[in-house]
Structures are given as C-alpha cells and as structure tokens.
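Researcher: Let's try something more involved. This one mixes different molecule types, so please make sure each is placed in the same coordinate frame as the others.
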Amino acid sequence: MDMRAPAAADAATPRDGRRLPVGGWELALTALLVAVVAGFGAAAPGFYAGPASLLGLTENFLPFGLVALGLSLVILTGGIDLSVGAVASLSAVLAAQLWSRFGVDIWAASALGVAIGALLGLLNAAVILRLGIEPLIATLGTSFLYGSAAVAAAGAAPPSGFPASFTAVGTGTLGSLGPLAGLVPIQLALFAALAVLFSALVARSPFGRVLVMVGYSPDAARYSGIRTGRVLATAYAVSGAMASLAGLVLASYYDAVRPDMGDVLLLTAITMVVLGGISIFGGEGTVAGVVVSVLVLGFLRQGMLIAGFSDMVTTMLTGAILLASIAAKNLFNRRGTGLANQIWATIRRPEPPRANPN
Amino acid sequence: MSAAAARPAADPRPGWRDRRELVLVAVTAASAGAVGIVNPGFLTVENLRFVALNSVVLSIVALGQTLVIAMRGIDLSVAPLMGLSAMVCGLLAQTHGLPLWGAVGVALAIGLALGTLNGVLVAALNIPPIITTLGTYSLFGGLTFLYSDGTQVDQVPPAYAAFGNAGPLGLPVPTPVLVLLLVTAACWFALGHSRFGRAVLAVGNNAAAAYNAGLRVAVIRIQVYALSGLLACLGGLVFVCYTGSATVTTGTGDHVELQSIAVALVGGTLIAGGRANVLGTVLASLFLSTVLTALVFLQVPPIWYSAGEGLMILVAVRGGTRRAAGRA
Amino acid sequence: MSAQRDADSAMPGFYAAQGIRKSYGAIQVLKGISLDLKPGRMVTIMGENGAGKSTLFKILAGQVPPTGGTLRLAGAPVALASPSAAHARGIYLVPQEPALLPELSVAETMFVGALPTRGGPLGRRVDWAAMRARARAALDALELPIDVDRPARTLSIAQQQQVECAKALLRGCRIILFDEPTSPLTSHEVEHLFSIMRRLKADGCTLSFISHRMDEVLEISDEIAVLRDGVLVDVVARPSFDRARLLSRMVGRPLKAVPRRAASNARDEVALEVRGLSDGLRFADVGFSLRRGEVLGLAGLVGAGRTEIAETVFGVRPAAAGEVRLGGAVVTGLDCHAMIRRGLVYVPEDRARHGAVLPMTITENVTSGLLDRVRRRAGLLSARDEARISAAAVRDFRVRCAGLDQPLRELSGGNQQKVVFAKWMTTGPRVAILDEPTRGVDVGAKEDIYEMIDAMARDGMALLVISSESEELVRLCDRILSIYEGRVVAELSGADISPAAVARSYLTAAAPSGGVAA
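Model: All components are placed in one shared frame. Result:
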C-alpha cells in the first residue's frame, strides 16, 4: 500500500518504457526452434544439405506464416477469423481469372487480389459489428460464402501456367541481388519483411497500441476515446489482405489456382498464432512469438517429412504440441503441488470465486 | 455498482418457446413441394428415403455438438472422430470380420475415451474449448491415418451394408433412421427432462451461478464432451455402414465440424449457450439434406451449395444473438 | 446479560461472526468483525463504499473464505466451503443483481441444482408439474404475482430479487442476507421489497441487509451496524437510532472537523454548460454551468444517476434531449473521441473496467489517452518520448512504482488512480469530470489526490467531481449540486456547504415528511 514514502517518485527510475518484443515464452520457443533444427540436422539425413536447402525448406510452409501474421492481429483483439482459408482461395482465384480472362497484368491482378482480400475482411467486420454476430460464427458463415464464390469463380478449368516472374515468388530466390542473396528464397524475404513490419506495428505503432488495448479491455479503450469499431475493422481487413497474399504465394508456388487450395491454411495458422503465445482472449502476446512458432512448426513438419514420417503424423504432433504448451502455460501460472493434485483440485472446485479486493 | 442496473423488464412474450421447429418443418416441406412441382421425381418415396437417410450421419454428430454448444462450449474434433470411428470399424470389419455388435462397442469406446480427453483438457487444464478441440482435431486425424496405414475401407460385410441401408426385420424404414430417432429421443429426454440435461443448460446459462447452486461444473463439462465424442463415433459407424467406404479424409473433408455447428445453430441452439433445441438440430439437418438434394434436381451447379450453408448460418444466428461475450 | 446472550446464541437462526478478518494480499479489508444476527430481527449494515460490507456478506454466505475468525450458527462453529454449503445450513445471500439463468424459466432457476424428480418408464425424470407448483406456492406465499413459466431474462431487477427471496425460502434458508438490494430499485419497488422483508421477519427469519439510504434504514431496521474501513464502529438498536450520530459514525470523524478548501479559483469564463440534459431513462432535465477554475460537486446516493449524467456529457452514453456546450461551442452528440480532442476528459468510477487497462504498463496507460502527444519516428511511437512523458507523469503525480514498465495491476489502488489522473491531465484538458476520484484509494494517496485536484483548479481547469463521500465534496468543491433520482434537487455554495448539509440535501429528498426516527 501507498504509505507516502518520501521521494516516492524518485524511486521510479525512468527506464526505457519499451514493451519488450521478447519475453520468456519467445525465448522458450526459440530454444525449441534451435533444438528442432539441430535435432533434424543431426538425425535426419537430407534435412541439412547446405544453407540453401535449409532455407529452401521454408518455401513449403511460409504461406501459413503469412496467414498467421494477419490472424495475429485479429486474435489480439480477442476475435477470430475462420474465413482466412476461403479468402485466400477466393482472392487468388479472382486474381488469376483477371489475368487469364481479362488480360490484366499479373502484378496488377495480384495487387487487386490483395485488395479483394482486404474487402472480404471488411465484410467480416461489418457482419460482426453491424449484425452483432460473434466473430467465430460470423466468419464461419462467411467462410462458406467465400468458399462457394471461389468455386464459382474458378470454373471448370482454373487458370494455370503463370508468367515465370510470378512463379518465382513461390519458388525462386533473391539470386539476382548477389551470390549470398541467392541462398534466400523470395518467400522468406517477403515473410521476413512482413514479420518485421507486423512486429513494429503491434509493438510500437499507435494502431498496435490501441489494438492491444481493445483486446485487453474494449470498455477501457472506448472510455479512452478509441473508436473500437475502426480498430476491429482494420484488424479484419489486414487479416483478409494477408490471407489473400498467402493465396497468391500458393498460386505462384503451385503455378496454378484451385478453389480449395486455401482450406489447409486455417487450422495450422491458428495453431501457429496460439503456440506463438497470443491469448485467444485477446491482448496478450507478441508477433515475435508468432514468427518463431511459425518457424518451429514449419521446420518440425519439414523435418519429419524428410525423416519419413507422413503428413498426418506431423499434423498430429502439431496438435499435441499445441495442447501440451497451453496446458503447461496454464499449470505454470497456477501455483500448487503436483500435476495430478492440481487437476483433481480443479475438478472438485471448478469455478473458484475470483479474488476481488473491492 | 448499480449504475447500469436499470434494465427495463424485457418483453415476456415471444422467444421463450420459439417456433423454430415449425418454421423448419414448413420451410423444408415448402421447398420439397416446390421442387416436386418442377421435377416430380423429387417427391418419389425412393428419393425422400434418400434425403432422410442422407441427413442421418450429420444429425447424429450435430446432436453431440448441440449438447456442447448448449453448455457454452464448442467441439471441432467431431469431424476427425467421426472419421476415426468409420475407419477403425470399417477396417476391422473388412479385414478381420468383426461382427457388427463388436463394431458398435468399438465405436462407442473410442468416442467415450477421446471425448473424455477433450473434456479433461477443457475442464481440468483450463484450455479454451476452441483451442482444445483444434489440437485434438489434428491428433485424432493423425490416429486415423496411423491406424489405416495407407489403406482405406471400400467394402464392408453385408451385415454392415444392410444395417446402413435397409430396415430391420423387413421394415420399410432404414435402420440408420431408426437409430437417429432413438438418439434424438434420448437427447430430447436428457436435455429436456433429466437432471443431467438441465444441469448442462444451467452451466451454459451461467457457469458461476450453476456452481453456486452446487452443481459440479467440471464433471458436467467432461461428461458432455464425452457424449459429443460418443455421438461423433456413432455417426462414423453409421457412415461406414451406409456408404461402405471410409478414407483418411472422412469427416474432415466435408467439414462436418462446421456443418454440425451450423445445423445446431440453425436448429435454434444459442451459440452463447443456455438454450438448446434437439428437434431443431435434426430438422435443420434434414432441411440441409433436402436443399442439397433439391439443388441436384434443379441442376443448380454444386458450387453454390456451401454458400447456401453460409447464408443459413448468418440468417439463423442473426435471430438468436444474445450475449456476445468471449467464449470460454 | 452475558448469560442471556449465551442462551440466545444457541437458538436456531442465531448467526454470529466472531473476529472475522479478511485480507487480499497486503490489503486488509476486514479487521476483526464481530456481529450477531438474530431470528426475527433485521440488522442493517451501513458504511461508506469500500468499508468492507460486501466482503463481510460474501464471507457470511460462503462465497469467500475468511482469513481469520469464526462463524457460529446456533452457537456451534461452522466452516462454509462454498455457497451451496451455506445453503445447506440455511444461509442465503441475495445479490444486488442476481445472476440468474437467463434462458431458463423462473421456476427452474429457483430449483437449479435441486430439481424435483419422479420415477418414470425411462428412469428418473424432472417433475415439472411439482416444480412449477412448488415454485408458484413459494411466490404466492410472498404474494408475488410472477409467472413461473417466464424466462428468467424477462424479469426486472426488482423481480429477480423477489424470486431470490422465494428461492431462499424454498431451500429452507431462514437466514437471508441482502447485498445492497435497494439501490437499483425505484421507491415503489423498495416498498414492495420492505413488505416482503417484514413478512419474513414476522415469520422468524434472520435478516440482514446493506444500504446507503438513511431513511430506508431507519424505517426497516431493528439494529444498525456501522462499518468503517473494515472495523465495526457502532451497533445501535431501535429505538436509539440517531441520524446525526449514524452519519458521523459512517464518515468516521465528527462532521464539523472537516477541512474546507481555501479560496475559490473560479474565473468568469464558462468552460462547460449543460442545459436540459436527459437520457430518457436515468436522469432528466439536468442543467448547470461550470466556470474555469471552478470545482463543482455532484452529491447523491449511489444509483442516483450521477455517473450516467457524467457519461452522457462525456459522450459515451447517448443523450435523449438537451444541450452540452464546451467553451461556447455546442458539442451535444459527439463521441468521447471528439470530446477528448476538444479538451474534455473523464476519470471513470470503475477503474478496472473503464479507467485503465490493468495488464498494460504504466507508460502504456499514461499515453493511452492521447497517443498523438507522443512523438513519432517513421510512424512509430518514439519509445524515448513515451518514457519521457511517463516519467514526468510518475514524478508529478507521485506514483509509487518499481519502474515505468510495471504492469498497472501490480500497483496499489491509490497509485493506479494517480496513473489514470496522469493519463488525462497530461493531455492538457480544459474540463475534467472526476467520478469517485478516491474510490478504493488509501488515506495517504487520497490526500495526494485532493492536492492534485486543488492544483488543477488553480491552473484554471474546470472540474466536475462526483463523490458519495460528503466530506470529500466539502473538501474539494466551490459549489455542490445534489442529485436525487436523476434530478437536481438542491444547490449549495459558499458558507452553506458542510457535510451535514450535503448529506441532508439528498437524504431528505427521499422522504420530505422527515423519516421515521430522526
């Protein structure tokens, strides 16, 4: 309690008021990343065949990371966006059709595709804010709508065979920039740039600050003069734009579009965000954590595939890691005796009354 | 603080026993009738039987989902569980000649065990339901894959096929429909007339108040997730009998988790928990099956089918929004 | 006497607290409370906000375990592990805003956890008919015309409390505690509740309730216990009730010894003008003008509509009629974002919910009011500039903390409130509305905050202060408006201002005839 200590203010040395982008969780994830890469490098022949191939592995999972970055903003507000997969498919299909049917330049079509993604995100926000439907259900509904539209837009023979400059995004490297740059896939450069951008956005931009405030406490944000509706709309729009970007990268990677190609993105991207330490209830977490978790899950998956495990087994492990990490976090936050005792105590006394000094 | 306390007494009239069932019956009948006028083939006994049979699996799975949502939870893992059950039962029958009653036991045991796992993760480890079942979604899907080891079910013994398509003792009603009726009646009784079911609704309305009233909230949560798992696996068994096939994408490929949530909500169960409509879930599933079949008859391109589902969810939920608080 | 008490205390329905203590971390909320509740008697707990009344009730009802002390029921010590354990022993707490089960019927909410069942062909099933009949009988016994089939969400707050009373009786609970039941009720509803209470009392139930409203308390109580800062300072039995003594006990000091602010800083220029403001629900036709350097107080009972008036002026609640002018310009209907930019800020009453984001750091909270103040580098907030603003705020507002990065939730209530002040004052507002500025703040920090408010007025800021503590208004304000049921009922200024006058101005508004035993 405040006992009017003399020189109370001087005790507070004005330290740098920076919200550190890394904390214990991010460090633990980084250690896990090192262990995963080193472990597979040692144990799985073929996982490490020189730096170029190691970095090249990222091409197989970075579209998930792009979706996860956008989704991070939405989950930081305490919401969720289940439509990211459908948005990715729909905007990639539309962009491809613009290129193939209407002769729009592929880059212009891609830009339009990202804009379409942002618009679809705004539509999600409109459904949530105007109709007052919970984000989970609203985006579940729109995901069906967008998915159908993607199938319709794709037609019987979806476009493929894009210009080489476009397919380079998914599979090429920055080779033209110099010998060392040749090691870096374009996808990785894109992801790294966006990761830095999003990290700065959340940690240091005015928008990020209000985003986190809305996530922790929408009421307090409103009483602070923040127009929370605009913040939410922006978050969903960014999520849509990032999903469509991921869809375009997939189109480039496969050199084709399919109306269901975004479907695989959703569950893995949510896993990446949550494992990255962003709380599903909003407010808590950093983009840095998400970035590391993208790499952990991505390399883990690639490593296991190379080691001969099947796709499904790696997916299974992803799920197990997600559950174990959240459970560990919850148990860590709760002080007490052994694991079994804690679980038993929860079952016996399930809704502990909240301590409230007021 | 009492500041926001002066809530005027709300209108006591409608909403209480809302007529969702009647609306669904009317809409289903009207759409079937309308399609019948355009294409009389739709109204043949054969086709109507198909429509009904086609809705059974989703209905059974969605009844479990209804219980979970009524309790203010959500279960995404029903889809892979259904697939796992279909695969395990189907392969045991196909390769080891497991008798049908054995398959029933296997399906129920898998469902209970894995559903309980969901419940323990949610209730005892405090993991939010959406995260929990997202994680087990991957886990259970992986189990299916491991068990199948690259094979798939394409042929089930005649007893299974008969169970999935024909009626028992020469009855004209297919067995799956009878199973569904039984399950529906059980859920209806449980939610409407048993202490357990009312406790589930009490938890969905206000978990803290339910706890204060002496209900064992965590135990109830575990039981409900176990039941949801059980019904998902029963759905999987019916599926493998009915179609005679199961692959690693059974359940997950059709997004049964999303469909089951959709029909539960369209049926009148509140996403915020606390109110459930068992009959509504079954009727919504029947409605979905009717519409999807009708679209085939009307030669509507199948691409718009899921758009219809999406609209259905948004329209249905728009009517039933109550509290938009974060789901825990 | 003592032998008599021992004999009484063994009576069924005699519920005694002995030396009950409760601490949350370092904060001691209850410091050894001993209180007897007796069958057929209504014991009222009075006290200022934060005195520990609700905490005491929660302990009595098994919702919160005490840190120390004993509860005795009919002479025997009891330990209550949960609310349901309390119910089993016949103790029931009616919360101020009952947490019902909105989608279930009234009858079912009354029986939740103990639904009657009967045998059937399919096993035991809920006996709806019996449940409805018993629920109806319980409501009828209290002459409550409530349809038991209605969904609980359609009940008004008053009806919810009535249902809770019937529910207590249904469960065989005869020790019934009411946590501040009357503040959300209209006077007519209060009368109805009192008639129920009298009936319960006549029936031999043990009753206790919390209230702030003097006239009510004098009307219904058999004994009045005054709680102040976690200590039971007085217990008076009818007929020795004395309004002035109770008031002075509640505020803790003799009323005349209250310090009064020095000189008014009010200037001529009007900073905020409100005319005929109504929200169509909680208040109507409120008007006042506030000059630069002036401190205007809003006095009244909790629930009188003062917070609603403030929120409507600030723009977070819609106005139904009336006009708000800020520095001469009409600003009615603007949202709070626009108000803040025009120099009007609001320090809300509920700090944890509206005032601050407790998990965020001191710096983040200080700059959250107006991020435009922080310098940018390439569009990003300059960490150095933020730290500078935050350090200055911490220094100027004497915030005790371990560092600027400390999450706000780790600070004491007083320091949290200073951060909220700092957040708004560093935006350089011209008008500030302070709603219960010292709620949940300890004595030392309170005086700091008073000095800050004085300094703001000296600087020419116009201040509107809402407080439920008469002393605080007297200490701070040049002028005081008294609000009763959403209307301005009195205005005090200059030498007329005294704690007694302030308290009288709204307490007597309730019952013009003068009350029962004053």
